[in-house]
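Internal tracking record. Fields below are filled automatically when a chain is submitted to the structure queue. Please do not edit lines marked as system-generated. If the sequence contains nonstandard residues, flag them in the REMARKS field before resubmitting.
Queue: standard
Priority: normal
Entity type: single polypeptide chain
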Amino acid sequence: MQLSKRLEPLSSNVFADMDRAKVTAKAAGQDLIDLSLGSSDLPAPPHALEAIAQSLQESSTHGYSLFSSTQAFRQAAAKWYDDRFDISVDPETEVLALIGSQEGTAHLPLAILNPGDFALLQDPGYPSHSGGVYLAGGQVYPMPLLAENKFLPVLGDIPQSVLAQAKMMVLSYPHNPTTAIAPISFLQEAVAFCQKHNLVLVHDAPYVDFVFDSFYEAPNKQSIARSIFQADYEKSVSIEFFTMSKSYSMGGFRVGYAIGNDQLIQALRQVKACIDFNQYRGIFNGAIAALTGPQEVVRKTVDIFRQRRDIFVGALDNIGWPVPMPSATMYVWAKLPELWANNSVDFCVGLVESTGVAVAPGAGFGKAGEGYVRFALVHRPEVLSRAVEKISVFLQREIV
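SYSTEM-GENERATED OUTPUT FOLLOWS
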């Protein structure tokens, strides 16, 4: 049987290797503590669950969800953006419902790229960004994110030969996995760069609420995490993705949306029309309730992850593994001890098989991620502390 060549760039998957290692560890009797996936352990908001539950009894929600049936959700998303960022959004032409933001970022390249076109992607970066480019027949140009540059790409380093074939740039701040935040000055630079070189600017923003610097107390509700449209007010070249998975702990419900340039929204809508009819309408009702209901739940969620961050980083420091205190996201991005500086996969496989603690190898996010690991703070503090104790035992045994 001959399969598509599109699958070839996807054949090597570090996270699939880690899944096999986790299965091996469980089979050997290890008590698995999984810090490798950014799937929140917190419940969805009660008012969102109640809206979904009520929808189940309404037969009108049981049919296909075409574009017109997402109108109320699109209106809620547009209002959320207006309230959150003071950005006016047309729910009819500038919003599109998604089955999670990952679906949107993976499908968008089909609407933008021709075979052989370049996409400029962050390295390290979220794997679905490159996956969508490869499925569209495009080429990836990795933009290295280095600690000395505050994990921001140096746009001036991109070769002119690449820019001549490039059609899109993908950014994501607050950033997964490095936890970096982009200042508005950099976003303005990126918008101007994309305007100059006729590039679509894609901003994946699932962690825009996950900032640990008093977002809700900030003047005019302006956090240090920005929407791309605060740098591209006219939506001239940009599209932004948001998901309910992080702020509202609704990852399993698979609901998000794209907001942006009306031509880009229409193009992505055309791709989606060939692939899906959206999700169950009751899920949209739950998302509407979350977006329009009490927002205290978001603050509580961020506070919980702030407390976990403080405990986890402090525990790592106590065992002799100092790491920078992340300002955002639900992760800790940690440079590996020298013994594993060039083999994050070996470290992660060895750790989970020996202790049951699973973490994500930096190499899985790109070449520039080698030498790092990502910890997801998706467990209670006592579990995180127990994980660090196990990590300490592993380090001592391996270094000795």
